[in-house]
Amino acid sequence: MPADPAVRPGPVDLLRPAARGAAPPPVAATVPPPRAGRSAPTQAGLFLVAAAVLVVSVAASVRIGTTAVGWADLARVLGTRLGLGVEPLPPLVDSLVWDLRFPRVLLAALVGASLAVCGTVLQAVTRNALADPYLLGVSSGASTGAVAVVVLGVGASTLGVTGGALTGALLSFGLLLVLLRRTGLDSARIVLTGVVVGQLFTALTSLILMASADADTTRAVTHWLLGSMAPARWDAVVVCAIVAPVGLAVAWLCSHALDGLAFGADTAASLGIGVRQVRLLLLVVTAVLTSVAVATVGAIGFVGLIVPHGVRFLIGPLHRVLLPYAALSGAVFLVWTDALARFAFAPREVPVGVITALLGVPLFLLVLRRRGEL
């Protein structure tokens, strides 16, 4: 039987190996105790409210920028695209809203949802409160692939930066699976192997930059590595709009397995869960979601770390409820963070990864303090 969930080891305790013969630390300790259940209509109402907050956030964020866009202008752009017979805006304003701001904000929502879901899944699979979407080394692989295209010109004509980043991310995940094939898929080995793979590709990225790049190229690559929504276009939105819902659906269908894995492999197996198969499936899902997100906008930190903890603190640890709320919360968080990155230092734009780090550190410390670990 799992230990008393009231016992709450800190993140460092979860990484420390247990004494010989001792039971592993309970994962219920990494999350607050379950809340009292809510009725289905109440849950549905809360979810609709959260979805409405996301829609309002997207609409409000589209209006924010160096050029103000009114609500009426926004309605006219949408009406024109829907063929409602409204008077169109001037072409320059219409292009600003539809071709630049709409894809940027929608991509921020999709990437934020993807990263939050990945963080939620990996924290359960690895039983590690510090797990985030970049735990598997995928981000480092994507960085190496992007730098190889920009600096060395490898596959520049066919792949482009996004294709190079996606290729590098998938290669790094393939290396992770090869290494784990020999050592197994238990939580500690996943964490340690992911760190090793990430450090390898980080070293390769640094080597390429130091050996081949000039100052301007290094500056451009660094800006990409920090994460930015500026390159967002509709084709990237379409790709993420296909991948993100599929990944969320697969993770949600594994909610029962995630609840079991959160208490350890033995508990999950006793519930009839195929631990190895489920872990492999969820690792593939999180790797694909993270690869597409990083290849599209670069590495944006802290979203997949703090959002799952904050949502788990508010609604409890059951993944059937946790995953949809984490997706909505991650989307809202990144939409407003990107808006802040656009107007806080206007006309100069700050990479959104810098803003998420500045906001993420104090928020994560607050979560740890509320849980009594700080």
Oligomer: single chain
In CATH, the homologous superfamily goes by the name: ABC transporter involved in vitamin B12 uptake, BtuC
The CATH class is Mainly Alpha
Calculate the mean pLDDT score and round it. Answer: 82
Q: Mind telling me which CATH architecture this is?
A: Orthogonal Bundle
Query: Which consecutive residue ranges, at least 5 long each, have pLDDT under 50?
Result: 1-37
How many whole angstroms does the radius of gyration measure?
21 Å
**Which topology does CATH recognise?**
ABC transporter involved in vitamin B12 uptake, BtuC
Overall shape: it is globular
Q: How many domain modules?
A: 1
Strand content: under 5%
Give me the strand/helix succession.
Answer: HHHHHHHHHHHHHHH
Q: How far do the termini sit from each other?
A: 28 Å
Biggest sheet details: none
Query: In which range does the helix fraction lie?
Result: over 70%
Give the class from helix and strand content and strand pairing.
mainly alpha
Care to count the β-strands?
A: 0
The number of helical runs is 15
Describe the protein.
The protein is mostly helical and 374 residues long. The protein is 71% helix and 0% strand. The protein has one domain (48-370): ABC transporter involved in vitamin B12 uptake, BtuC, CATH 1.10.3470. The protein contains 15 helices and no strands. Helix 2 packs parallel to helix 14, helix 4 packs across helix 13 and helix 9 (234-253) packs antiparallel against helix 12. The longest helix is centred in the N-terminal third of the chain and has 35 residues, at 91-125. The chain is globular and about 65 Å long. The relative contact order is 0.15. The model is unreliable at 1-37 (pLDDT under 50).
